[in-house]
Design brief:
The chain is α/β, with parallel strands linked by helices. The protein has helices at about 5-15, 45-60, 75-85, 100-110, 125-130, 145-155, 175-185, 210, 240-250, 250-255, 260-275, 280-300, 320-330, 360-370; strands at about 30-35, 90-95, 115-120, 135-140, 160-165, 190-195, 220-225, 235-240, 310-315, 335-340, 350-355. The protein starts with a helix and ends with a helix.
């Protein structure tokens, strides 16, 4: 029978407690949200929503084509200029998603014969990009700059080091300065995904590369998503103008994909404008993360110290994590639930988002619910 093996796989997932289900949320959900990636609370901000609506009314519901045909509007160009300027890079290129941006950057910058050195904690989009690239990938231990240096020593040709800036599972930051130093010793490029750093780290939320003094460097390329701190959707690659021009001509997820919807571009532009005027939002997100961590650990829970806005709480098992998250939801709190195969180390967790717009009362309530429902 066609696809008969799917039933066997479904049964294996069920036995392992790894079945995933979709939970459509209503527009007016009563849950306290610590599960989304809306770090600055901008997804429903009036200015951001109006930016989306205004752009949709002016440009239409969709981009109408790929970026090289009809899918590039003046709005896309304005967003690219603003992203590059805000983050401190020479140029930017906008994609329909952060996933597409990562696929584009890695595959275009790791040709046949090159070496890709990939951090073991990298996001699935970077892992998939490494698999699709024509270069050879060597995975090194998580956040180990010396391992990166040793891997580069084994290769005499073109090389690129690929890493998240802030890892999505535990919220820990990569040693970017050390990675950059290792790259420069060997003439390699550094490509980092700042999905969880933009809007949270750096001066006024300009990102982890900016905080590490790497913004604008001619050997550094950064990918970002518009769907987290900026409350929109889409992705971008930032870097030297010659790198961006190379992507325009070679990146398949740019050439063959429909351009970002105007509403998303407009929302992201509005969010960047708001963040310029209110840079304190980034510091508040970090403050909330530290407060959550302090209160959770004081309550006897095992939480990882956050470097940005992600707070990870260890669970005893995949099944225990699922039950824990479900009981939190029943008590009015939405939390993330990370378990294999989404976590590279096999440890199940609750994943909390430290949003900048959380009040002290909401923080206290969240910690109370998590403590009272612990397995």
């Amino acid at each position: 029978m066609a696809f008969g093996w799917i039933d066997e796989q479904a049964e294996l997932r069920r036995r392992a407690g790894l079945v995933r289900t979709l939970r459509p949320r209503p527009a007016d959900s009563p849950l306290l949200d610590l599960a989304s990636n809306d770090y600055l609370g901008l997804a429903r901000d009036r200015e951001v929503v109006e930016g989306a609506a205004r752009s949709a009314k002016l440009w239409g519901g969709g981009a109408t084509g790929s970026r090289l045909v009809t899918g590039t509007t003046e709005l896309h160009t304005a967003l690219e200029r603003e992203l590059a300027d805000f983050c401190g890079f020479e140029a930017a290129l906008v994609f329909s998603s952060g996933y597409a941006a990562n696929l584009a950057a890695v595959t275009a910058l790791a040709p046949h014969g090159s070496l890709i050195v990939s951090d073991a904690g990298n996001h699935a989009s970077l892992i998939d990009a490494c698999r699709l690239a024509r270069g050879t990938t060597q995975v090194v231990p998580h956040s180990d700059a010396e391992a990166v240096r040793k891997a580069l020593h084994t290769h005499a040709g073109t090389a690129v080091v690929v890493s998240d800036t802030v890892f999505s599972v535990d919220g820990d930051a990569a040693p970017l300065a050390e990675y950059a130093e290792a790259c420069r010793e060997h003439g390699a490029g550094l490509l980092v995904d700042d999905a969880h750093g933009l809007g949270v780290l750096g001066d006024g939320g300009r990102g982890a590369p900016h905080a590490a003094g790497l913004a604008g460097a001619d050997d550094v390329v950064v990918t970002v998503t518009l769907s987290k701190s900026l409350g929109s959707q889409g992705g971008a690659v930032l870097g030297p103008a010659r790198v961006i021009e190379h992507l325009v001509n070679t990146a398949r997820t740019f050439i063959f994909d429909t351009g970002l919807a105007p509403a998303s571009a407009g929302a992201a532009l509005a969010a960047l404008g708001l963040l310029r005027r209110e840079p304190e939002r980034a510091a508040r997100a970090r403050e909330v993360a530290r407060e959550l961590h302090a209160r959770l650990t004081a309550a006897g829970l095992e939480a990882v110290r956050p470097d940005a806005a992600v707070v990870s709480v260890r669970a005893p098992s995949p099944e225990g994590a699922v039950r824990w998250a479900a009981e939190c939801r029943a008590a009015g709190l939405a939390v993330g639930c990370f378990r294999p195969p989404s976590v590279p180390d096999g440890i199940s967790r609750l994943r909390l988002t430290a949003r900048a717009d959380l009040s002290e009362g909401q923080i206290e309530r969240a910690v109370q619910v998590i403590g009272e429902t612990r397995p």
